[in-house]
Design goal:
Strand content: under 5%
Shape: elongated
Radius of gyration: 14 Å
Order of helices and strands: HH
Mean pLDDT: 83
Largest sheet: none
Protein name: CsbD family protein
C-alpha cells in the first residue's frame, strides 16, 4: 500500500478521535473540529466494477 492510500485513512481516524474526545470532555470546539475534518476527509466513492 502506498503512502497516498494511508494518508486519508489516518486523517479520518484523527478526526474521529477529535470528535470522540470533544464529546467525552464536553468541549464543543474540539468536537466541531473533528466533525468538520471528518466531512472534509470523506473517502472518494468509486463506481462498482461491472
Amino acid at each position: 500500500m502506498s503512502k497516498d492510500k494511508k494518508q486519508p485513512s489516518a486523517d479520518r481516524l484523527k478526526s474521529s478521535v477529535k470528535d470522540a474526545i470533544g464529546k467525552l470532555t464536553g468541549d464543543v470546539r474540539v468536537e466541531t473540529e473533528g466533525k468538520g475534518e471528518k466531512r472534509r476527509t470523506k473517502p472518494e466513492r468509486t463506481p462498482p466494477k461491472t
